[in-house]
Amino acid sequence: MKIVINGEAHEVAATTLAGLLEERGFAGRVATAVNEAFVPAALRGSQALRDGDRVEILAPMQGG
Amino acid sequence: MKRFYGTELPNPLMLGTAQYPSPAILEQAFRTSGAGVATVSLRREGAEGAGATFWKMIEDLGVRILPNTAGCHTVKEAVTTAHMAREVFGTRWIKLELIGHTDSLQPDVFQLVEAAKILTEDGFQVFPYTTEDLIVGERLLAAGCEVLMPWGAPIGSGRGLNNPYALRAMRAEFPDVPLVIDAGIGLPSHAAQAMELGYDAVLLNTAVARAGDPVAMARAMMGAIEAGRLARDADPIDARDMAEASTPVIGKAFLA
């Protein structure tokens, strides 16, 4: 199915958020949101993904 | 020095981590100046994992982390970002920015108060980036904030303290609240002025990161902050309109 990851559409096999992170190789310290709602790390395994979902994967960056 | 949500800081310099010419210069700016707080953000992670490299360097600095909600324009966006930041950085501290105006990056204080209330109830310790408006300050305190961070001037403008009169009034109005000048600092003299007004800390980024020599400028800022704080504690004289001779008149020879 098609999932929008950080603004870009990708064809993915994973059916959960945790699966998606693994499939796309996000191993580091990240925070996640699905359809503009925060999903805590502990809930990624039970967060099912549906076609067209928008996933944000954020990491520490420089800031002022 | 006042405590920030119960935490004592080693000194009053809070330094941003953006816009440095290189990670090595950023690291040196922190180590040379001794800044005790680093502001950071959350941004989209690429497959190359840039976030991990950055985080490792910041972690090694051993400073307090103050994540921001920079670039957020709505309460929902800011609250969600804060939750994501708390998980990633493992801190309840959040520098709450709610931008209301594109050119000046002026905070939207109405949404700021609303978001501060929600986040405080969610267990966050909010550092609100606000204006020098006293009523907004009161509302933020009523919403649960225990720190206020009024702007000196628009972010990145380097104009210094645009409204010292109002900032002095804010200091007088909230004598026991930790107050931080956040944004607008361009020169060490601006930072010194903030401390002379009795502010408890200064948060700056661009003035150091975009200087020709960021490491030297970081040191200069720390020196100025220290000087301003010492001066404040030393009870400076009041300005006068007319001259007052400092050399004694008594005993002067008659030579005219």
UniProtKB/TrEMBL annotation, chain A:
Gene3D superfamilies: 3.10.20.30
Domain of life, per lineage: Bacteria
PANTHER family, sorted: SULFUR CARRIER PROTEIN THIS
Pfam families for the chain: ThiS
Gene name of the encoded protein: thiS
CDD domains: Ubl_ThiS (cd00565)
Name of the protein in its database record: Sulfur carrier protein ThiS
SUPFAM superfamilies: MoaD/ThiS (SSF54285)
Automatic annotation (TrEMBL), chain B:
Record-stated family: Belongs to the ThiG family.
Gene: thiG
Enzyme class: transferase
Protein name listed in UniProt: Thiazole synthase
Thiazole synthase ThiG domain boundaries: 4-248
Entry superkingdom: Bacteria
Keywords: Cytoplasm, Schiff base, Thiamine biosynthesis, Transferase
Claim: Secreted is one of the keywords in the record: no
Gene3D superfamilies in the record: Aldolase class I
Pathway: Cofactor biosynthesis; thiamine diphosphate biosynthesis
Annotated organism of origin: Salipiger mangrovisoli
Reaction(s) catalysed by this chain's protein: [ThiS sulfur-carrier protein]-C-terminal-Gly-aminoethanethioate + 2-iminoacetate + 1-deoxy-D-xylulose 5-phosphate = [ThiS sulfur-carrier protein]-C-terminal Gly-Gly + 2-[(2R,5Z)-2-carboxy-4-methylthiazol-5(2H)-ylidene]ethyl phosphate + 2 H2O + H(+)
InterPro entries (UniProt xref): Aldolase_TIM, Thiazole_synthase_ThiG, ThiG
